[in-house]
Design a protein that fits this description.
Blueprint: E1 3-10, H1 14-29, E2 35-43, H2 47-57, E3 61-63, H3 66-70, E4 77-80, H4 87-96, E5 100-104, H5 111-124, E6 128-131, H6 138-149, E7 155-163, H7 180-183, H8 187-202, E8 206-214, E9 219-221, E10 240-242, E11 248-255, E12 260-266, E13 275-282, E14 285-290, E15 296-301, E16 312-315, H9 336-353, H10 361-380, E17 384-385
Parallel strand pairs: 1-2, 1-4, 2-3, 4-5, 5-6, 7-12
Antiparallel strand pairs: 7-13, 8-11, 8-17, 9-10, 11-12, 13-14, 14-15, 15-16
Length: 388
């Protein structure tokens, strides 16, 4: 009989739904694990909300006190899906209690906090993961495989974007994501960090950045109610509060291995819903990925004949990364939930086999160092080195 790993989830919003679906579904997709996750206890700010979350998301118990869940000897994994300002406090407490930890991205508001989190999990010797789930997309893992095999040769250039439009409407409410004290940064921390993760995962450590930021919408209607409504325009509230984070960031990159590149991230791009992309050029070929077409990886190899050289599309399926656990036909359809299922699979495997998670708190800390350097560069309008 497989071991059961009990999950204590701190937070019950949108990401709690995504993680809960993954815990429920992972054993159906990946049958070769030594353990299965069990949704034990979920935490929200009021008893009414916590009870409703437990019923909706399939948890056995609920609580309004995250510390009691962290200290519960029956809990094996602490899953942090709260706003960014509480990640560090919860993760450090969980590490001291000897719990394995998965935290939503970004790991924290800044590198000072992520360093403290990293030191805590290293000292406690607990497994730790930061939930940059997009790298778990089979097409992205296939790009990594091609790069590691040398199929496109030495990488010269990385170009990454993450464009959304959910906050382009100035009447969309003042989510915590627009408040520096809670979020740390805006488009950079919320979505730009995903592109930084792609860059580190596929190319290597970023050494230096030159960035510019912009806040297009300076104030937004103050949100009513306790549930974060993201870009959903509720209406009816004329009182507004200030936005003190970036809406958009553009940055040039220099990598430690000599490659160069760029990153753009904005939540104000009308018509772009979840346009997360990368294009990588190497000496022997190129790769292109667009998350809105996430079953596809476009490839071009220099060795192709002149009469057939150009991008061609590979539809991911059984022959590609995670194919043994997902769908049996190429192009059948990979969704956001599948990336979370793969994420949980890797977490359970790391815990049961005493291996490093990927990506882990060290990866999250490196991304925070890059993010801090980007904000410093935007302020100084100079190249800033990243001290990784």
């Amino acid at each position: 009989m497989k071991k059961q790993l009990n999950v204590g989830m701190i937070g019950a919003g949108f990401m709690a739904k995504a993680h809960s679906m993954a815990y429920a579904s992972m054993p159906m997709f990946f049958t070769n694990t030594e353990a299965t996750p069990y949704r034990k206890t979920i935490v929200d700010v009021t008893e009414e909300l916590a009870k409703a979350a437990a019923e909706r998301l399939g948890f056995e118990n609920y609580s309004t006190d995250w510390r009691s869940v962290v200290e519960d000897p029956e809990i094996d994994i602490i899953d942090i899906v709260t706003p960014n300002d509480s990640h560090a406090e919860i993760a450090i407490a969980a590490a001291k209690a000897g719990k394995h930890i998965i935290s939503e991205k970004p790991l924290a508001r800044n590198a000072k906090e992520t360093k403290e989190m990293l030191e805590a999990v290293q000292q406690a010797k607990v497994r730790n993961m930061v939930a940059f789930n997009y790298r778990k997309t089979p097409a992205v893992a296939l790009a990594k495989k091609f790069i590691d095999e040398g199929a496109i040769g030495k990488i010269m250039n990385f170009r990454g974007t993450y464009l959304q439009d959910w906050s382009a409407d100035p009447e969309s409410p003042l989510s915590w994501r627009f408040q520096k004290d809670k979020a740390g940064s805006g488009a950079l921390g919320d979505i730009g960090t995903h592109v930084i993760d792609f860059a580190h995962y596929l190319v290597g450590d970023i050494a230096e950045v030159m960035a510019t930021t912009q806040t297009w919408v300076k104030e937004r209607p103050i949100q009513t109610g306790g549930i974060d409504s993201l870009g959903n325009v509720k209406g009816g509230n004329t009182e507004k509060g200030p936005v003190d984070v970036d809406d958009e960031i553009s940055t040039l990159l220099r990598f430690k291995n000599g490659a160069v590149g760029s990153i753009e991230a904005t939540r104000n791009a009308w018509g772009r819903h979840n346009f997360l992309t990368f294009e990588i050029h190497g000496e022997k070929g190129s790769l292109y990925f667009n998350y809105e077409r996430r079953d596809e990886l476009q490839v071009c190899f220099a060795e192709d004949g002149d009469d057939r050289r150009g991008y061609r599309t590979i539809y991911t399926g059984p022959a590609h990364p995670y194919g043994e656990g997902l769908w049996p036909i190429p192009g059948l359809g990979i969704g956001y939930s599948e990336t979370k299922i793969v994420e949980v699979y890797h977490l359970i495997e790391a815990i049961t086999k005493n291996q490093e998670c990927e990506p882990n708190f060290l990866d999250g800390h490196k991304i925070a160092l890059v993010s801090d350097a980007m904000l410093e560069s935007a302020e100084s309008q100079r190249w800033v080195r990243v001290d990784l």
